[in-house]
């Protein structure tokens, strides 16, 4: 059955990078029997300019109807002074919230050809391939009660609540185990079970879910140790699963091990593996409209979409291998360029991936 994909290019470099991802998807439709239909719409500042809101209700409805959403990026100087309720980012937040995207998957992959881009020694990071699965809609970022109150002695006190229910932990654990099954079958669950009861329960629930995936080797690690191990020996990790706050911090740490923001994809999934896919970087207004941006993070996000929402693991692998070939050829956009390589534009990079496919 034909699957439908909603394309939301957004602002800044968004339209340039998504155009390259669409080029790749069209090629796979032509040559590999990929059965999808694509429709494009507005999000972020681009939607505000036309509709007065960063995400029109009709676009939200299309996102609900689609099998997957591929998004570029939102934001830019032009919309920075708008009222917070209609800023471009609100469009993204609405999509995440109303689509019920509770699982955020962020790969930190360092192609061996780009090892010199990392601030760590090449032998520590070359070939790095970690997937961080972060719970996105619960934990301390959303727990109630929260606020800042004034105590009887007049002193202010800030407070938040770190809370997870068993079902929330179970569903994110299943996403992580299923991802591990598609990879090297190693899962590290990150918690602070020695101090926080909520993560003591997290650990117990992960252990219970683990019984359903006997092939996956499970380890538990305290978050402080995980932060240290990511820098010391990052290649020990395959899939990591953790709560919202720890995941926020560790996924940024892991992505920076690779040193190349233009290469990092992400996926946010709901209960049925329907998802929204987007590069981890922003709209890069400083280089927008110049055909300079690196489209590979968006093309890799499209690969994740094929893997997780469209049931075409084979084509996801095909895209990843094509990108590796292009890097072998020494082709680089400005952000990942180094001595001896050939600098290409955003569209030339897309063309090179199509040729490698
Ligand atoms: P940014 O990621 O847009 O840019 C940071 C730096 O990285 C810039 O120098 C930029 O040129 C470069 N860069 C980013 N992506 C690149 C690519 N694909 N190829 C080459 N270079 C690339 O972050 P920022 O500058 O902090 O934010 C710019 C705008 O993006 C802001 O309006 C911000 O709110 C928005 N933003 C959006 C998202 C999103 O849509 N998910 C995420 C982060 C920031």
UniProtKB/TrEMBL annotation:
It comes from the Bacteria. Keywords: Amino-acid biosynthesis, Branched-chain amino acid biosynthesis, Cytoplasm, Leucine biosynthesis, Magnesium, Manganese, Metal-binding, NAD, Oxidoreductase. InterPro entries: IsoCit/isopropylmalate_DH_CS, IsoPropMal-DH-like_dom, Isopropylmalate_DH. NAD(+) binds at residues 76-89, 282-294. Substrate binds at residues 96, 106, 134, 224. Residues 4-353 form the Isopropylmalate dehydrogenase-like domain. Mg(2+) binds at residues 224, 248, 252. Its EC number is 1.1.1.85. The record marks 141, 192 as: Important for catalysis. Its cofactor is Mg(2+); Mn(2+). Transmembrane segments: none annotated. Belongs to the isocitrate and isopropylmalate dehydrogenases family. LeuB type 1 subfamily. PANTHER family: 3-ISOPROPYLMALATE DEHYDROGENASE. Homodimer. Catalyzes the oxidation of 3-carboxy-2-hydroxy-4-methylpentanoate (3-isopropylmalate) to 3-carboxy-4-methyl-2-oxopentanoate. The product decarboxylates to 4-methyl-2 oxopentanoate. This is 3-isopropylmalate dehydrogenase. It comes from Thiomicrorhabdus heinhorstiae. The lineage of its organism: Bacteria, Pseudomonadati, Pseudomonadota, Gammaproteobacteria, Thiotrichales. The gene is leuB.
